[in-house]
Amino acid sequence: MGEFTLRPLISRDRIAAKVTEIALRIGEDFAGEPVILIGVLKGAAIFLADLVRHIALDASFDFVAVSGYGGQRQHSGEVKLVKDVDDSLADKNVVLVEDILDTGLTLTYLKNLLLTRGPKALKIAVLLDKPDRRIQPVVADYVGFEIPDEFVVGYGLDFDNYYRNLPDIVTLRSDVIEARS
Ligand code: PRP
After folding, report:
1. Residue 113 lies in a domain
2. What is residue 10's three-state secondary structure?
3. Is residue 180 part of a domain?
4. What are phi and psi of 180, to 5 degrees?
5. pLDDT band at residue 173 using 50, 70 and 90 as cut-offs
6. Mean pLDDT over each residue of the chain, to the nearest integer
7. From atom 20 of ligand 1, which residue's Cα is the shortest distance away?
8. Could you tell me the CATH number of the domain that includes residue 40?
């Protein structure tokens, strides 16, 4: 796939500024307390890696993995846990970290799951939010950018596992998506 199929949406500079801003807010909200960030594989890995390095607290991180899209553009409607966190979240300040909030099915499932683990606090950080696509009414505490319903890749987000390594967030032309579906 050539570069001509991609259009710039959010530059690496704007992403970096927003990540710093969210990290600052997390630092204020949990002032003086430890936090654990839980990233949702794979898309959130890059956002989490940048975010955690800007949080001026005792911050650790772990990952969960779920299946829902199974490589398809359409959500299957069902979310299954594929990988759990390694340690107890009881009495911990937890921030669930996602690259994108789309239908809300993934975060609704994960929020409910993590709440059963008895955290002291649970907040949700998403870099991108597509409110037009919501099926479940989940609201994130920290939102980087609200975006229209376009197919976005880069900075962790993929199309068939391609493009996760792009430093900027770009849109992928729909004719390309259709040709490859
Ligand atoms: C994407 C994204 C979120 C989820 C959001 O993951 O990373 O986890 O979909 O969608 P939702 O709000 O409609 O539930 P995907 O299943 O594509 O896996 P990936 O992170 O490995 O790319």
Report:
1. yes
2. strand
3. no
4. -100, -5
5. confident
6. 93
7. 43
8. 3.40.50.2020
Q: Has residue 35 been placed in a domain?
A: yes
Judged by DSSP in three states, 140 sits in: coil
99-132 pLDDT, tens per residue? 999 999 999 999 999 999 999 999 999 999 999 9
What distances in angstroms separate CA 10 from CA 69, 128, 156, one per listed residue? 24, 10, 13
Query: Is 102 noted as a catalytic residue in this protein?
Result: yes
Q: Distance from the CA of 97 to the center of ligand 1, in angstroms?
A: 11
**Helical segments of 3-142, H only:** 12-29, 45-52, 105-115
Residue at 1: amino acid letter: M
CA–CA gap between residue 82 and residue 69 (Å, rounded): 13
Rg (CA), the chain: 16
Among residues 13, 84, 99, 102, the one annotated as catalytic is 102
Tokens of 100: 């994108």
**156 located within any domain:** no
Task: Please say whether the beta carbons of 34 and 59 come within 8 A.
Answer: yes
**pTM exceeds 0.90 for this model:** yes
User: What would the pLDDT profile of 34-60 be if each residue is shown by its tens digit?
Assistant: 999 999 999 999 999 999 999 999 999
Q: What tokens appear for 99 in the block?
A: 């690259």
Structural element, H or E, at residue 177: helix 174-180
Of the candidates 23, 81, 85, 90, the one whose C-alpha atom is nearest the C-alpha of residue 57 is 23
Number of domains the chain contains: 1
